[in-house]
Amino acid sequence: MTPRTALGALHIGALMFGLTGVFGKLAAASPTIIVFGRAAFAVLALAFFARFASNTRWQKLEAVDWRRLLLSGLLLAGHWVSFFVAVKVAGVAIATLGFASFPAFTVILEGLIFRERIRANEIVLVTLVSIGLVLVTPDFDLASGATTGLLWAIASGLLFSLLSLANRASSARIAPVQAALCQNVVVALCLLPMAAPQLSEVRALDWLWIALLGVFCTGVAHSLFVASLAVIKARTAAVVFALEPVYGITIAWLLFNEQPTLRMLLGGALIIVAIVVSSRFAGGSSKKAVAVEAASH
C-alpha cells in the first residue's frame, strides 16, 4: 500500500465511522438492539479480516488481559448505547458533536488518573471544547430533547475517553484486531439478555441498517485503519479520524434535512479544531493505540 492509497483508505474509514449515527438513525430499533446487532456483525467482519490478513498475530491472553478486555468491552457497550440514545433523542449532528468532546475528558482524566501535569495547549483544548458545547446546545432546558440528547452524547464521550485510556494500557500487548474482536464479543454477550426478547420484532430493513453498521462502520473501517497504519504515521491517522464529525453531520444534513444553525456550526468548528490540535500534539500515541481507539466508534 502506497502512502497515497493509505491516506485514501484512512478517509474512507473516517467516512464510514461518520455514517455510524446515520445508520443508527435509519434503524427504527431500540439502542439496545442496534448495539447488540452492531457488535455481532462486527465480530463476523473482524474475524473475516483476521483470517485473511497475513500480518495479524494473535497474542496468548493472560488473566490480566481478559480483565482489561472485559472492562473495555463494558465501557464500549455503555459508550455505544448512550451514543445511539443521543441519536434517537436529538439527531445525528448533536449526538456526533457531543461525543466529539472526548479529547477534553481524556486530558482531564489523564491528569487525575496518571497524575500528569496539564500543559497549556491542553487547557486550550478543554476551553475550546467547552465553548463549542455551549454553542452547540440550542437551549439549557432539560425538558428539551436536544439538551437531553446532548447530555447523552457527552456521556458517550466520557465513556469513550475511559475506553481509550483502558485501550492504551493494553495496546502494547494485544493486536488491535484481536482487541476489537474480543471487545465486540463482550458487548454482544452483555446485551444479549436485554436484546433477546425484542429480536423477533426487528424489521428486515432494520437488520440491513444494523448489518451495514456492524460490517462497514466497525469491521471494514477498523480494518482500513489497521492496514493504513503500516504506512501512515499515527498522528496523521488521528487527524483524519477527527474529520468523522464533518462527514457524519454533512450526510445527516443531506439525508434527514438536519440543517445545523450558524451557532451549531461555530460550536462544531471549535470542537473539531480542538480535536485536530489535540491530535497534532499527541506525539506519544502509538499506532496500536490509535487503531484500537478507532475501532471503538
Protein topology:
Layout: H1 3-18, H2 20-26, H3 31-52, H4 63-90, H5 92-99, H6 102-113, H7 120-136, H8 145-170, H9 176-195, H10 204-228, H11 234-241, H12 244-256, H13 262-281, H14 287-294
Helix pairs in contact: 1-10, 1-12, 2-4, 2-10, 3-4, 3-9, 3-10, 4-5, 4-8, 4-9, 5-8, 5-12, 6-7, 6-8, 7-13, 8-14, 9-14, 10-14, 11-13, 11-14
Which percent band covers the strand fraction? Answer: under 5%
Counting DSSP H or I runs of 4 or more residues, the number of helices is 14
Mean pLDDT: 82
Structural class: mainly alpha
What does this structure look like?
There is one protein chain. The protein has 297 residues and is mostly helical. It has one domain. Helix 3 packs antiparallel against helix 9. The radius of gyration is 18 Å and the shape is globular.
Brief overview, please?
The chain has 297 residues and is mostly helical.
Label this structure with key terms.
mainly alpha; 14 helices
